[in-house]
Amino acid sequence: MKTINKISLTLLFLVFTTILNAQNYDVPEGFKWTDKDEYLYISQDKEHAIQKCMQAFSMHSSLDIETIKVYENSKVPIFWYSLVGNKRKIAMIFYCIKYRDGYDVVIKKIENKDTYFFSVEENNGEVIDLFYAKQ
Q1: Using CA atoms, how far apart are residues 14 and 19, in angstroms rounded to an integer?
Q2: Are 103 and 96 in contact (CB under 8 A)?
Q3: Where are the alpha helices (DSSP H) in 23-85?
Q4: How far apart (Å, rounded) are the C-alpha atoms in residues 8 and 102?
Q5: For residue 96, what are the contacts with CB-CB under 8 A and spacing of at least 6?
Q6: pLDDT digits (tens, 9 = 90+) for 26-42
Q7: 8 A C-beta contact, residue 37 and residue 108
Q8: Where are the domains of the chain?
């Protein structure tokens, strides 16, 4: 019985540690952790969503947020990244996307490798593929 309790306790510890490691980065108030291993903030207002995305970016980058290019007429006004630490093995992805009647702001931590996210069809019919290219 002691062996079973020890194994159960070890498994519980491993699950708890994995959950903590998955959510180990700071985000502004209002973001929620999702089952897609990313943080999500939902806004009904585009300007507010852009500001929230810039606020999140400023927490993880030494770059001035004014350097972020905002595409005002796009369904994805912001798609940006920041590398984590000196080893540059991890990238933080920040984007704001029109979804239904509002805007989603997403923060996702990925390995620093080429990563395809999704395609978006703009209002003019142009299809944009959003991906991160390894830095």
Answers
A1: 9
A2: yes
A3: 46-58
A4: 44
A5: 46, 49, 50, 52, 53, 76, 77, 78, 79, 103, 104, 105, 106
A6: 888 899 999 999 999 99
A7: yes
A8: 27-132
Q: Is the pTM of this model over 0.85?
A: no
Q: What is the pLDDT of residues 103-113, one digit of tens each?
A: 999 999 999 99
Phi, psi of 105 (to 5 degrees): -110, 125
Beta bridge partners of 39: 33, 107
Q: Is 56 exposed, middle or buried (0-12, 13-18, 19+ CB in 10 A)?
A: buried
Q: Please tell me the distance from the alpha carbon of residue 22 to that of residue 17, in angstroms, as a whole number.
A: 9
Identify the bridge partners of residue 119 per DSSP, sorted by sequence position.
Answer: 129
